[in-house]
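Friendly challenge for the regulars: who can give me the structure tokens for this chain first? No prize, just bragging rights.
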Amino acid sequence: MGRKWNNIKEKKASKDANTSRIYAKFGREIYVAAKQGEPDPESNQALKVVLERAKTYNVPKAIIERALEKAKGGSEENYDELRYEGFGPNGSMVIVDALTNNVNRTAAEVRAAFSKNGGNMGVSGSVSYMFDATAVFGIEGKTEEEMLELLMEADVDVRDLFEEDDSVIIYADPAQFHAVQEACRQAGITDFTVAELTMLAQNDVTLDADAQAQFERMIDVLEDLEDVKQVYHNVDLA
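First reply, four minutes later:
Bragging rights claimed.
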């Protein structure tokens, strides 16, 4: 399990190093979530998840409010949610989630990112069956035993719970995202190092140095694309 957590940490560290880019992407994601329902996180669960993720990336309040105001103002800007699947070097697998107002542009850019970096696009379902949709939380200042007791008392089921790097990591079914969050908040835990809905690979692979360097270039190119929201993969980058 630890290696999967390492992949999440590597991705988060990469995004933390590109704040202006990630802030812009969160602005778009918040706008889309708010447009799909009410622009109020208490009545719009999808928006609530995005806002919790934004908090862990320290997205400025001004960017969040601007995106919400845009949605409230009835903007006619529309985005399609797309998922691409593909393969990198030596059997590595990649899932790319995107929000786009130009499907042809995004498809071409994602395909080029794969093909120019030793990968290739796959058909829908060619990769995703090897991943599990998972809610992931990272909590500091608590022990594994304390968090297990807390969640049991709140009658919240989780898939796995373990300590790593001074944090307690919780894996749960996506449907339990808000239940885990609320149980923590009832216990006075309001800050999470990670609060994500992600896709975790069922099995990680390790690449040799050359293949990993090529793979990391491909991931960097994909994550730099304006329309790409999330990138998931099965490579152990630790």
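The helical segments are 2-16, 19-36, 45-56, 61-72, 103-115, 144-153, 177-186, 209-224. The longest helix spans residues 19-36. Your move, everyone else.
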